[in-house]
Amino acid sequence: MIMGQEILWSQTPNTWSYDIYVPGSGTYYLNNTLKNQGTTYTINAGNITQSCLNIQLIYDICIKDVVICPPKPCSTANCQLEVYQEGALDCDGIFYVQLQISNPNGLSLCYRKSGATVGSPVPLSGIIGPFTGSEQVIIYNCNNASCFKMIWIAKPDCEELGNQVLNSRIERRHNRLLKVVPNPFSSDEISIYTYQESTTYKIFDINGRSISEGAFTGSIFNLEFPGSRGVYILSYLDSDGHVQYLKLVKQ
Asked: Which pLDDT score is estimated for 170?
């Protein structure tokens, strides 16, 4: 079943709605309400709050759970903010998320998990975490919490892979072109194995500080890594010129 949507501001300040469309000629249930396929419905979602909506679509024996997050508040001054989940790093019980951020006003951005009372600054790298499962996250102006953007963090390659997340641009990136051995590691040297003829890489810590960068040719590269214990991110260009990420853990 395919479902399309569009997040809309309503005419009433700080309220929102979304359009939903399921192609076809039959019927389906939206949150237990019968709907016709091939028809676009505008659903009033009410006030823009720091919470996403969970909706359910049922068609025959197919059940799809969908998360829809509201737009940023439209009446908050100087709140030109858009945030999407661009990708996720690993799925080994703990994972990190790469954000795509549009912040033309240069706001100081913080984030916190839904329900938490204390937030953390968004690193320059745009990578936040760690997470252990899917959940709502609030990205907000550290100096004015009324300017915020809700996003839904989806755990990669796990039981929720079949659910569609709306208002989040998710690319499920698999690090099959490159592998670091050992990882986790405790020594000051790691080996990078790759299927690519040439590889350009960067390593930075979870706060976005650059640790190492370079390029090499061939399938194996031994890299000196004298950094302290912690989590690091290795980014590299794949054969299509896209940036891929791999989490490194030094114990």
From this structure: 36
Burial category of 18 from C-beta neighbours within 10 Å (exposed 0-12, middle 13-18, buried 19 and up): buried
Residue 134 has a CB neighbour count (10 Å cut-off) of 16
Cα 194 from Cα 224, distance rounded (Å): 17
* Angle ∠(232,235,238) on CA atoms, nearest 5: 155
pLDDT, one tens digit per residue, over 192-216 is: 888 888 888 888 887 777 888 899 9
Per-residue pLDDT, averaged over 163-181, amounts to 52
pLDDT for residue 119 is more than 60: yes
d(CA 186, CA 197): 28
178-250 shares the fold of 82-161: yes
What CATH number matches the domain at 178-250, 3.40.1180.10, 3.30.70.1060, 3.40.350.10, 2.60.40.1220? 2.60.40.1220
Closest by Cα among 217, 173, 225 to 195: 217
Closest CA to 235 of 219, 208, 220: 208
Around Cβ 137, how many Cβ atoms within 10 Å?
24
